[in-house]
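#structure-requests
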Amino acid sequence: MFQWKSNLEFYNKHFGATFIKKKLKYLLVFILIGEIICGFSAIFAILHFLINENTFYGFFTCVLASLLLLSMLIGQRIAKDYPGAMNITVYFIVAIIGVILMK
């Protein structure tokens, strides 16, 4: 969000040989909005759990984070950045464990 121009330049190079390049601005906006929603949702889920001892919003947050990470993982695979995809996979596994624990 704060380094939009440099991030856009980096991802233009990263996805330069793929069909994603033409829609990159929209995809970055989607990821940015998703990250903001996940962050606020996580704060709300923690507060809700501390007050009501209910994990519904934690489950919802983990599902949102999993979907967001899955979309980034697919993007890395399309760009054929396998080490980057492997790094995202670790976070995806943690988010899935969160989904299982919050169920």
